[in-house]
Amino acid sequence: RMASQADTPVAAAPKKNVRPPVPESLRKMIQARRESRARLHIIKERVSLRKKEMRKIIIRRAEKYHNEYKARERHLVTERRRAKRNGAFFREPEAKLALVVRIRGINGVDPRTKKILQLLRLRQINNAVFVKLNGATANMLRLVEPYVAFGTPNLKTVRELIYKRGFAKIGGQRIAITDNWLIEKKLKKFNVVCIEDVIHEILTVGPHFKEVNKFLWPFKLNCPRGGFSNKKKHFQEGGDAGNREFKINELVQKMN
């Protein structure tokens, strides 16, 4: 009996639940992730705050430009009425901006005309660009008159073209303008931070017109609804080519 009791196994004492030590590399990785999440949270807050501030700035600028356009139009109407009441002739202000649309191809085009079309960035049919009118550009338009239609755009035409057909030239790529951030990134140094700034700079031919116009990719328009009447004839002869002044807005409305 004593031998049997000695052979009976004694229950082992329960072991304590001891967690294995965390490797140093894993501890560093966890800490790095926490710091990264904290930095990302701070950056998101700053971006959100910046967007709110920019939204307020953009709204104020849009209201300012709207009032400016209305005041200018009201001034012109007042001057026209005054001239009519006094029996005088009101001379319209000289146009500073032209919208040029290419309407013909390059078959049989001489090298000089082809080069001028390239300088105007009109490399395809139905391309359109804004041009600042001066002596040099007026002579260029006169030389390529049989291949383009041009005139003076109004606010509605400029706004609809940029909003609907506006693409930016960034790094040689044609990028759709889907956010004011693209404009701010490229043109902030010229105090142009939103789409309304671009419209205002183009319409008024501002001091940074060249940079803003270069930022915009040439507009790609459709063929006009109903087609052209006669591309080979001048507009004054019943055709489509040449200078049509304010009538260019009707053509672009059909092509946009």
Give the tags:
elongated; 9 helices; two-stranded antiparallel sheet; 5-stranded mixed β-sheet; alpha+beta; 256 residues
> How many beta-strand elements?
7
Low-confidence stretches: none
Amino- and carboxy-terminal Cα gap: 110 Å
User: Mean pLDDT, as a whole number?
Assistant: 88
Beta-strand portion reads 5-15%
Q: What structural class do the secondary elements suggest?
A: alpha+beta
Bin the helical content: 40-55%
Enumerate how many helices there are, as a single number.
Answer: 9
Physical arrangement of strands within the biggest beta sheet: 6-2-1-3-7
- Multimeric status of the protein: single chain
Q: From N to C, what is the helix and strand string? A: HHEHEHEHEEHHHEEH
Radius of gyration: 33 Å
Q: Sheet bearing the most strands, described?
A: 5 strands, mixed
* Shape verdict: elongated
Short description:
This protein has nine helices and seven strands. The chain is of the alpha+beta class and 256 residues long.
Describe this entry's structure for a reader:
This protein is α+β, with helices and mostly antiparallel strands and 256 residues long. Helices cover 50% and strands 11% of the residues. The chain has 9 helices and 7 strands; from the N terminus they run H-H-E-H-E-H-E-H-E-E-H-H-H-E-E-H. The protein has helices at 2-7, 24-85, 111-119, 135-143, 155-165, 180-187, 195-203, 209-215, 248-255; strands spanning 97-102, 127-132, 148-151, 167-170, 173-176, 219-220, 242-243. The strands form 2 sheets. A 5-stranded mixed sheet has the order 6-2-1-3-7. Helix 5 (155-165) packs across helix 7 (195-203). The longest helix has 62 residues, at 24-85. The radius of gyration is 33 Å and the shape is elongated.
